[in-house]
Amino acid sequence: MALVVEKTSTGREYKVKDMSQADFGRLEIELAEVEMPGLMSCRTEFGPSQPFKGAKITGSLHMTIQTAVLIETLTALGAEVRWCSCNIFSTQDHAAAAIARDSAAVFAWKGETLQEYWWCTERALDWGPGGGPDLIVDDGGDATLLIHEGVKAEEEYEKTGKLPDPKTTDNAEFQIVLTIIRDGLKTDPKRYHKMKERLVGVSEETTTGVKRLYQMQANGTLLFPAINVNDSVTKSKFDNLYGCRHSLPDGLMRATDVMIAGKVAVVCGYGDVGKGCAAALKQAGARVIVTEIDPICALQALMEGLQVLTLEDVVSEADIFVTTTGNKDIITVNHMRKMKNNAIVCNIGHFDNEIDMLGLETFPGVKRITIKPQTDRWVFPDTKSGIIVLAEGRLMNLGCATGHPSFVMSCSFTNQVIAQLELWKEKGSGKYEKKVYVLPKHLDEKVAQLHLGKLGAKLTKLTKAQADYISVPIEGPYKPAHYRY
Amino acid sequence: MALVVEKTSTGREYKVKDMSQADFGRLEIELAEVEMPGLMSCRTEFGPSQPFKGAKITGSLHMTIQTAVLIETLTALGAEVRWCSCNIFSTQDHAAAAIARDSAAVFAWKGETLQEYWWCTERALDWGPGGGPDLIVDDGGDATLLIHEGVKAEEEYEKTGKLPDPKTTDNAEFQIVLTIIRDGLKTDPKRYHKMKERLVGVSEETTTGVKRLYQMQANGTLLFPAINVNDSVTKSKFDNLYGCRHSLPDGLMRATDVMIAGKVAVVCGYGDVGKGCAAALKQAGARVIVTEIDPICALQALMEGLQVLTLEDVVSEADIFVTTTGNKDIITVNHMRKMKNNAIVCNIGHFDNEIDMLGLETFPGVKRITIKPQTDRWVFPDTKSGIIVLAEGRLMNLGCATGHPSFVMSCSFTNQVIAQLELWKEKGSGKYEKKVYVLPKHLDEKVAQLHLGKLGAKLTKLTKAQADYISVPIEGPYKPAHYRY
Amino acid sequence: MALVVEKTSTGREYKVKDMSQADFGRLEIELAEVEMPGLMSCRTEFGPSQPFKGAKITGSLHMTIQTAVLIETLTALGAEVRWCSCNIFSTQDHAAAAIARDSAAVFAWKGETLQEYWWCTERALDWGPGGGPDLIVDDGGDATLLIHEGVKAEEEYEKTGKLPDPKTTDNAEFQIVLTIIRDGLKTDPKRYHKMKERLVGVSEETTTGVKRLYQMQANGTLLFPAINVNDSVTKSKFDNLYGCRHSLPDGLMRATDVMIAGKVAVVCGYGDVGKGCAAALKQAGARVIVTEIDPICALQALMEGLQVLTLEDVVSEADIFVTTTGNKDIITVNHMRKMKNNAIVCNIGHFDNEIDMLGLETFPGVKRITIKPQTDRWVFPDTKSGIIVLAEGRLMNLGCATGHPSFVMSCSFTNQVIAQLELWKEKGSGKYEKKVYVLPKHLDEKVAQLHLGKLGAKLTKLTKAQADYISVPIEGPYKPAHYRY
Amino acid sequence: MALVVEKTSTGREYKVKDMSQADFGRLEIELAEVEMPGLMSCRTEFGPSQPFKGAKITGSLHMTIQTAVLIETLTALGAEVRWCSCNIFSTQDHAAAAIARDSAAVFAWKGETLQEYWWCTERALDWGPGGGPDLIVDDGGDATLLIHEGVKAEEEYEKTGKLPDPKTTDNAEFQIVLTIIRDGLKTDPKRYHKMKERLVGVSEETTTGVKRLYQMQANGTLLFPAINVNDSVTKSKFDNLYGCRHSLPDGLMRATDVMIAGKVAVVCGYGDVGKGCAAALKQAGARVIVTEIDPICALQALMEGLQVLTLEDVVSEADIFVTTTGNKDIITVNHMRKMKNNAIVCNIGHFDNEIDMLGLETFPGVKRITIKPQTDRWVFPDTKSGIIVLAEGRLMNLGCATGHPSFVMSCSFTNQVIAQLELWKEKGSGKYEKKVYVLPKHLDEKVAQLHLGKLGAKLTKLTKAQADYISVPIEGPYKPAHYRY
């Protein structure tokens, strides 16, 4: 795919796989709207006042049908939007086409190369001569990273005249990042500085991106305010948990059609994502074994009847392996060599380094047989035994299925809209410093509230006497900040 | 698709969608073999002695990857095979291509018209001048029905010279059957008689087909012996139950990506299929309501915490409707009109008359919007409210997903192989009359036994004293015939 | 406790623990009546016509609150009743007191010796000079066994003059049986013959008793007709399954207060009882391992995510062991010696020989520490490690808790009432030979029907067209005899 | 029971129900020790250094077997201990007897009057002329409250000479508190001041007590440092959740023997306690309906397939009602009047005002029938319909059963020991001000760690590279403070 930006008849830029899928995308977007009451009610509540009028928003977040409804909520509130995906496999091409045709500048397709991926990210950040976006919606932090690395390189260049050198890193992906920045520096040595100046803030979607933000905050290197959307209760305790409970089996089934009942499944990590995965596998009739480093999470697994062992203990008897840790090198090629024939290995964490794909790809004599896109059988030369790796070690629920379902994404994305509104509203007030913030409890409760009606729920209302007795306002918020749900 | 039979280079007939998918089909067949220990061990045990040498077997059963492994087990045991699917949407085209290229005469593709469907059935039964097949593997009983209707028409024709008249029935599908028979009669007025004469017997896969067989046995019209494979414990209590527990959510997810958690789901019927569906939906976080006619099954549902109501009680508040009854007119167009916008309506029973598709299609002013193949939104003119119907009311797990997974189908299909072996072995012995039989308990237990090793299970062995104490042989069978598991 | 029969003011015989508990028993009986709609509706339907007028019924069945409601249903229908328990630990003394005071002759208390147990059984069968009962309600078959052994001994005595010799058996309990018969023979050498002559039939409650009956039928030694109540669907698929799912954790908690979550539990046997036990333990958060001899049941366990291994594989790592097999010598003293300190060992099968209590009691140097009644810690001399045995190896749910709850027993006992009614109605008709019968399907469905209203369920009604389509009467029965539910 | 303090042969004070139960208590304590690895390992780790040497500890916490192991851990570490229960029904008399005989001064029995309850609390706080305790272990905050109210009254008295007047409050229980303080003031007008001066701090066990502490902190009235043990993850996410999941059905079964399967159960409140209760009821086969004020918790319930409605919506169709809110007036007498006959009403929250017992007791014409202790049927005069109230509206798991099992209490109580050690160690350091603190994350993780071995779990260990990648120490703590588990 040649990397040439295309334009719609109205002049909006895009680069997608197949514009003819736009109608199909539109139909699925319409279905999703019915399942996303939080976003639709944002349109109703805020649409008339056009709060995002004048705001330029860049998003780097899986370009799916659900994201399409998010994007069109942002535009319905007055924003201008440019978008890329935050994963090479996660784009749904019909969603990308519909948005590109109807609503925003999209640069995304399923099955990008890493080179293409970063090209798309750069395109999404490029708002022309006026600098970058006013706001960023980030997922995993790649858009944020590009700006931070860009600014760093520009400072170095200004000070020393030294261009970034891709050869200074072993990491293939980071080489691409440095190359892009280097090439940019040559044309405009203030490009990322201008972005940084303009930027009001970022709202970050996921655990991994949030971790990066807190590290930057700790180091004092964070360049603009950030809202941690991931740690809204209505995000991490819903999307991460119930989303994965839904999309893990979905990905397994679409990729392999394997019967889960009766199998031994290993879930590496028992955080919110791991809890969702383990619950799904157990309910489908698998015997689930958990690996954990944290004794508290381990004890939670035990209380649910799950066995807690190390990967070494079970590597040769399990049928399905899922990584959910947010850490690296969880399943190494040496583990993979010891697995049963046709053991399934997949990752549902944000980055693809939980499984040692490099070690696998470079294992002497290993043979890759692509069953179908995102489903590969890798055969080891000595044993002739093969393992099945999903989505090349990347997020299997987005690579092999369609990610989380609309309803739970509506919770997450309503937090995104609220976070973006908050940053934009306070852009001049100084309320937000170059730090990481979470949304206040009452907004978190509001997000939940917006999703109850669709499910037919009726809340109980406190009397004044009851509210006083437990020292909360009748209308909430109802819980202290440290409450764990 | 023009209905012209094609031939492989070796001269074997076929008609499939796309022969270029054969390699893909072969790769998935190889994966499935690892998951189908019962069938593979039949190949090991019986392959060398070629017990099916000389046997011509016709199959009318969903032409999927799993069925491909069944077919190649039959051919590995010496049989010659012709095959068609028993549902217009259930064929997996890559499976059909691989089998057509490598192993048997296949007439099947995903998305047949009814006309094409019966053409395929006829092709599968046509073994040339020597008459029909020796054995039939049937699912739902359509191959068996064609022969019985054919024989009936031929008798009538012989007696009265009257040809069957398609106009005598309202049923569109039965009109096609009569047309085929009528046209056949003109060329060969003894065609189905010859088939009947040659036929050693049929083994029937599913509840619906079995019901037809018992009715014919009761009427005295059954023309050849039949083995009821459905009621092997290792079939009905596994495939129907655990298979649907797997494939119902799979179909829902692939067709609609809808979040199941939080939804209200109605399961019509709480037999083995309904039990599997209800379990899957409950585990995924839906609130499940069951409709039942049978008080015993209803009480079972209640004991699992499910509500038991009538469809009328809940039609306007539920989000997902699944029919599993084996009966007709379960969800009528009047029900559908009262449903919530975008309620999902689907069927996982064998035939497509559980949902009143005719009533829906002919409802004045109704509008059909095809989201994607097998996923349609039907909008009623008065309310502008739409419902989503899967697979046009046919088996949604095969229409929208890939049916049951290999492991559980290995149980079912091992019963099929054993049944076919038994019929063929006893073809001259008179052991089987024109009646319906079930396999003996020890064979049922053997099928289970063949599937334990793959799941790492170890059985306990009775001592002589223990076996005597409970009056069973050490090696089984362990249970009386009436035992319900 | 001296074995002297007492009499109420109205002259009815009894022997119970403490008559002062009668009021408490009455209160709990009244609560149970609300939970037993099947029995209560029998009183409404049949009470007015007094169908049991003149019938003398002996029952040998756990003398609990639920049984009290059964007994008073029999008396409400006109019967005269004498009762004993079928287990030395299962009597609830307040229930026995209330019934003895108000309704029937009761001989039962919690904690009988075996000697006392058989004395009670004999008392319950003794209707004075007129011979034995007209009908027997049996559970486990001890009343039936006493008559059969009695008749056998009387025949031998008549032929050879030889009295039965208790020394001919090692089995301590059978020695007591022979002693009773021998002593009886001295006073009346035709006692059991007279019983046999009078007896119209027996209805048997449980798997174990039914197994005995089928063996006698096979041997041709069955002396009177028997109705197998256990294999009514509304008995074995409810009481055995859902009853144990309730009462197993109840017994564990009352006896040991042990936390089930996180523990490794071994369930020996995966029949209906084992399925209920395994489900309860899994749901409470234990990791459950099943032992099985039957590959079909083993495969069912695997499909539910349970591990299937042998007892030897897991004996030293599990925390809780439950036997449910109906077989003997399942857990031997050698197993027990290898268990972890304070492992819990219990049985929920009918007889106490599943656990080798004799081996344990006679193990050299073993020490028994009674924590409280029915909860003993047994310490092995070498390891100083102890195991906790519940209810001395007898039915732990009745020994350590109160057995199954009223609602599910209402299903079982409504079958009993219907069976007794049927036997009595047909007493002269010759309909029932000396064989074992099950109740017809429509009565089974009726039992279920009687329990739906209490749970707020509403059944769907077939239309005529639907009933015809599936070839069943509109009012049922709906399933063929072989249907497994 | 006359309120006279008794003394052991060694001169230690006590007041318990029946000293002869001490041996039985000791046996159960020994069983519990095996299930409480956290406490036992505190004895091993800290016992030799006797860190509590010289410390006088007063506890006001359910005097159960598990608490006995806590008390003996405190004494094993060198403390002198006086104890009372924090609930009139929660004492296990055999536990109280064993501790009174062997280890500490105990004032507690099952079934205290409120008068007796506060007498016991006062006794536990009375360490003689030297003032009160050094440390308090509190549950619900009654010991803390007595001191705070005492100090307040003494200040008022000092200023104005006014004694507290019980008539100033309607609350019967608070009248007793004021009476005690008033009577104390007459003998020693500085009694509670002396206590306050001496007190190093309190560690509080439960949500309710913690709420009180935060309110006092907010008001600036807190008189000494407090450690909030409840909000240790290893407390609130284990004891509250998994403890109640175990003990709610236990209480229901022991009190009523009711079959849970098939019933409609309403759980008021879906916090940790409500989540545990709802999970237990659902797993036992009930259909569970949740009432909530908090939209986030409500949405969690929905995701688990539970219906969320108001009590008014379901009051007349449910069978079982459980309050878990920590609020008051949840179930009023007007609700109770509308319930089905024999509906079960119970509370598992700390205080007894969730159910309007006063309204019920004073309802004109209502009749109370005590089935057995802690199980009462209340019959309304108009309908003759009754409801069953457990434990007089107090904590039903402690009133009707034996509370939470040992293993999960070991988690909670290990936090208590660690909190007490911390307070005592830092008594002179000024580290703790008059505020509420939670334990640091690494101690929370340590508590979990101590409980893994017993369940056979094995943790995974981070490599240095992995630890660096996620920026945590190899040995933990692994999570940020805001992590929700």
From TrEMBL, chains A, B, C, D:
Binding site for substrate: 64, 139, 205, 235, 239
SUPFAM superfamilies to which the protein is assigned, alphabetical: Formate/glycerate dehydrogenase catalytic domain-like (SSF52283), NAD(P)-binding Rossmann-fold domains (SSF51735)
Record keywords: Hydrolase, NAD, One-carbon metabolism
GO cellular component: cytosol
Cofactor note: Binds 1 NAD(+) per subunit.
Record keyword Glycosyltransferase present: no
Family: Belongs to the adenosylhomocysteinase family.
SMART domains assigned: AdoHcyase (SM00996), AdoHcyase_NAD (SM00997)
Domain S-adenosyl-L-homocysteine hydrolase NAD binding: start-end pairs: 240-403
Protein EC: 3.13.2.1
Superkingdom per UniProt: Eukaryota
Cofactor(s) the protein needs: NAD(+)
Pfam family, one: AdoHcyase
One record GO biological process: one-carbon metabolic process
CDD domains the UniProt entry points to: SAHH
This protein's record includes keyword NAD: yes
InterPro entries: Adenosylhomocyst_ase-like_sf, Adenosylhomocysteinase-like, Ado_hCys_hydrolase_NAD-bd, NAD(P)-bd_dom_sf, S-Ado-L-homoCys_hydrolase_CS
Any GO MF annotation of the entry: adenosylhomocysteinase activity
Binding site for NAD(+): 206-208, 271-276, 292, 348-350, 397, 404
Catalytic reaction list: S-adenosyl-L-homocysteine + H2O = L-homocysteine + adenosine
Record-given protein name: Adenosylhomocysteinase
Pathway(s) it belongs to: Amino-acid biosynthesis; L-homocysteine biosynthesis; L-homocysteine from S-adenosyl-L-homocysteine: step 1/1
